[in-house]
Amino acid sequence: MIWEVFRQEKEGEYHTHCGNVHAPDREMAKQFAAIQHGRRKPTNNMWVVPKEEVGEVDGEKYSFGGTTDKSYRWATGYNVTADDASEVVESSDEQEDAERRRSEVA
Amino acid sequence: MPAFDSPASLDDEQAEALEALLLELADDEYVQAERYTEWQVRAPTLESDLALANNAQDELGHARLWYDVLEDLGHEEHELIYEREPDEWRHSTLTERPFDDGDWADVILRHYLYDVAEELRLEALEESSYAKIADRVGKIQNEEAYHREHAENWMERLADDDESSERLQDAVDRLFPHALTLFEAGSADLEETIVEAGFRDASLAELREEWLSIVVPYLDELGLETPVSEIIQYDDYDLEVTDDTLPEVRGRDGTHTEAWEELHAEFTNTYRELERSEATKIMAKPE
Amino acid sequence: MDLDTVKERAGPREFSPADDLPEEYRKAATRMIEFHANSEIMGAYLERPFIREAPSIDRKLAFSAKVQDEIGHGQLLYRAAESLGVKTREEMLDDLANGDGKFLNCFHYPMEKWPETAMIAFFVDGAAMRRQATLRRTSWEPYAHAMDKVCFEEGFHVKHGESILAELMNGSKKEQEMTQEAFETWWPRIIQFFGPTDEQSTHHGFASQVGLKQKSNDELRTAFLNQYIPKAEKYGLEIPDEPRIRENDEGNYEVVEDDLDWDEFFTIAKNEYEPGVGQINGRKEAQEAVEWVRETIEGGPVPSGNQPPQAAD
């Protein structure tokens, strides 16, 4: 049985997928994962998940975020400044970045 | 090459037919979306709330594309949506029907019946002779694939339980006749021109036959009876739609159920109250 | 872990479900995140009618997307709260329905006209964002992660609100008057968004000590006023005479607290303010009406993989 492994490097960070292990049950999967994926890279925490339980949505079949114009969902779609509120600027910047990366994928 | 790349290349009758076709497309999407939005903050779970809201935005986005094509024919959004009288709207009565509180079976069934029809209709528009229509179909189809899967997933889940299956059956009894109005023509002459000019390459009768051949067996498999199942031969869906099968009002000809006036008054309320004469655009004009 | 260790270690994103945390921490964090999640839901409840009322397709799309985001924020936040092991999402949503769940003061008031939407979407959301940005450094890691996503989306909300306000204040005289009127109605409530000064706040001390809260009510309110008073004035809104707001020696705005109606505020905090009670019950009816669907799907999504799920640890 295959288990997908997600590693969190430091406290407070996200768990990101880092690989998998073959193991007959969850306990052994945890032990194997700790060695295989946690022995060198800094690791604070780890999740193991049965591969069969992972559902997949593929960008080839499903257009994430749609295909028609959805710029009304983006801060960048509005021509007001907000430049005196730092947290709004930060959010707009993050959105701009995400929008750019989305169009790079498409 | 599409035959018509601008409104200037159309004769008067063709222009009128194109306008009729676009109004049906746009109004269907718009009103369907209006009703979907009623489920925002009212859906069974947070996740299903998000999903239906997305459908609403997709359909509204499609309506926006079709209304924009109508601008070629000299129309503007404020006049089309906020200044048109209720009896000038051309959507199918399926889309305008109100919901009873909590009637999730109704919205799911409507979602299913509508999106199967939508899929067929879009296929028939892929090769439209009016260039702008053909150009926009692809983007819309991409979003519709998810809609049909979503609707079917819920249909199957609800049909699998006694109580919810009964609610689905009630919804079928109520909505099926209204769904048939999706395939009614506002005017027989214009419908003929729509097909002759190649704006749409299948007739409404053909679309209806195809639609019946999909939805009737599907509902049947889920243990749901359609009001027309007795008069339909399984290998021949050429249903003769008599006045008995259709509701008294047809939508396409401007006649609507009472619920429509109320809905219309609600969505035009702010525009009227603020005495606006323009509809605000946030997004750039579609290409 | 004992409480002293918690206070000692309390830094940004310090604690996760992997930590064995004392009940006091878990309960305080649950109360705070549940309040936040409930506020998203009740805010969405208040704004939903304006999806329909929006005076253009683009505005309608934006409103639908905003309400959708808020439900999405609720989804993220209830999960962050649930992960503390004190209450399930279902329990929190039930409590919200039966009047035990608490939420922001602003969402207890009715909203009837379009110009009011700018008050929520620009000022209240602006205030919320000010607070949320600081919560990315809260000590409960799942809460901080939820805040990452919420802050990412919220920038659109505030700009959408500002765009509505700008349009109204550049519109007809009637629109400008309606907007000024809405502003006068909402302004004191918006200032009360941040609650009473810290000395009067019941939960502030503990939440700060354990790192759940990063900024005090006073600091947040001052920062908000410093930014949003000039913005309101820029759009031509007149700041009402009451509550009196003074500029202190450091150039910061300060509110005369006694000019605000704190009886009303605390009635609201107990979920006893009349329009708010109606809104709670309205949402409850909607939730009950679809109870049958939840029962239908409760049989549970069957995992589609071949392997039976393992017993939990």
Automatic annotation (TrEMBL), chain A:
<dbReference type="InterPro" id="IPR009359">
    <property type="entry name" value="PaaB"/>
</dbReference>
<dbReference type="InterPro" id="IPR038693">
    <property type="entry name" value="PaaB_sf"/>
</dbReference>
<dbReference type="Pfam" id="PF06243">
    <property type="entry name" value="PaaB"/>
</dbReference>
<feature type="region of interest" description="Disordered">
    <location>
        <begin position="83"/>
        <end position="106"/>
    </location>
</feature>
<feature type="compositionally biased region" description="Acidic residues">
    <location>
        <begin position="84"/>
        <end position="97"/>
    </location>
</feature>
<protein>
    <submittedName>
        <fullName>Phenylacetic acid degradation protein PaaB</fullName>
    </submittedName>
</protein>
From TrEMBL, chain B:
<dbReference type="InterPro" id="IPR012347">
    <property type="entry name" value="Ferritin-like"/>
</dbReference>
<dbReference type="GO" id="GO:0010124">
    <property type="term" value="P:phenylacetate catabolic process"/>
</dbReference>
<dbReference type="InterPro" id="IPR011882">
    <property type="entry name" value="PaaC"/>
</dbReference>
<dbReference type="InterPro" id="IPR007814">
    <property type="entry name" value="PaaA_PaaC"/>
</dbReference>
<dbReference type="InterPro" id="IPR009078">
    <property type="entry name" value="Ferritin-like_SF"/>
</dbReference>
<dbReference type="InterPro" id="IPR052703">
    <property type="entry name" value="Aromatic_CoA_ox/epox"/>
</dbReference>
<dbReference type="GO" id="GO:0005829">
    <property type="term" value="C:cytosol"/>
</dbReference>
<dbReference type="Pfam" id="PF05138">
    <property type="entry name" value="PaaA_PaaC"/>
</dbReference>
<protein>
    <submittedName>
        <fullName>Phenylacetate-CoA oxygenase subunit PaaC</fullName>
    </submittedName>
</protein>
From TrEMBL, chain C:
<dbReference type="InterPro" id="IPR012347">
    <property type="entry name" value="Ferritin-like"/>
</dbReference>
<protein>
    <submittedName>
        <fullName>1,2-phenylacetyl-CoA epoxidase subunit A</fullName>
        <ecNumber>1.14.13.149</ecNumber>
    </submittedName>
</protein>
<dbReference type="GO" id="GO:0005829">
    <property type="term" value="C:cytosol"/>
</dbReference>
<dbReference type="InterPro" id="IPR011881">
    <property type="entry name" value="PaaA"/>
</dbReference>
<dbReference type="InterPro" id="IPR009078">
    <property type="entry name" value="Ferritin-like_SF"/>
</dbReference>
<keyword id="KW-0560">Oxidoreductase</keyword>
<dbReference type="GO" id="GO:0097266">
    <property type="term" value="F:phenylacetyl-CoA 1,2-epoxidase activity"/>
</dbReference>
<dbReference type="InterPro" id="IPR007814">
    <property type="entry name" value="PaaA_PaaC"/>
</dbReference>
<dbReference type="Pfam" id="PF05138">
    <property type="entry name" value="PaaA_PaaC"/>
</dbReference>
<dbReference type="GO" id="GO:0010124">
    <property type="term" value="P:phenylacetate catabolic process"/>
</dbReference>
<dbReference type="InterPro" id="IPR052703">
    <property type="entry name" value="Aromatic_CoA_ox/epox"/>
</dbReference>
